[in-house]
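Translate sequence into C-alpha cells.
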Amino acid sequence: MSEELLMNVSPQETRIATIENGVLTEVWIERASKRGLVGNIYKGKVVRVLPGMEAAFVDIGLEQAAFLHVSDVVDGLDAQGQPRPVRELLREGDHCVVQVLKDPLGSKGARLTSRISVPSRFLVLIPNENSLGVSAKIDEVRERDRLRALLLAQLDEEREEGYIVRTAADGAQEEHLARDVAFVRRLWASIKQRIHSASPGTLVHEDLPLTLRILRDFSGHTERIRVDSRETLGKVQEFCAAYLPGLANRLEHYPGERPIFDLYGVEDEIMRSL
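Result follows.
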C-alpha cells in the first residue's frame, strides 16, 4: 500500500490529509485560534499558598496566576489517599514544574498539575516514577499481558520513569513500542534540559501542534510527507532530526503554484463533507 501525507499550512489553520493509493482516507484540521494551553509544561513559581483551599497560585508567565490543588501535586496524597496539608508541600517562592490541565476561562486562571506526563502514540511517560500500567480500556487479559511484556523488554530495570500503555496500543507490535519508548525518552530528556536552564515563569514545552503530532503518530509505511510551507518544513525537519530520525528522508517541500490539496481532489472532498 502506498501512503503519503499532504500538509497545507496557513497562518489561520493547518490541514493534513492522508492519501492511500491515490485516494483520500483522512483529513485533520487545526485552527490557530483554537489552540489552547492544555499539555504545556512550565517552570513556575508559587506566589500564594491557600491553606483554607488546600491549594496554591503559581506564576507561569501568563496574565493570571494559575491554580494548583494539593490533590494534583506529586506526593500530595497520604497512604490513605487523602490530601496532605498544602503547607507541607508548597511554600511561597518555591519553584515547581507544572503542566496545564485546563485552559484559563474568564477570570479563572489555568488549572495545573505537577504530575507531568509526556505522551506518544502508544505510550505515556510519567517522570520520576517506575510504575507500569496498561489502559483499562484494553480489557483482554492476554493482550494486556502481551503489551506489558513487550514494553518491559524495552526498559531498564533501574529506570527513573514510569509508563502507561495507551488504548491505541491494542494490537501493536514490539517495534512500535520500541519506537515510542525512544521517542518519549528523547523528548523528556530535552524538556529536562530546558527546565534546568529556564527561569521561573517560563514555558519549557508546548504541546505539539498538529503537524508534529501527526508525525509522532505516523504510520510506518508512509512513503512521502509533502509540506507546502518552507517555514513549517524547517520546523518539521528539526523535530525529526531530534526525535524521529527515520523520517528525515521522507520529507519534502511542495513548491507548486497549484494548491497542494488540489493534487488529489482533497479540497473537493472536504467541501462535500461540510
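Note: The chain has a mean pLDDT of 91.
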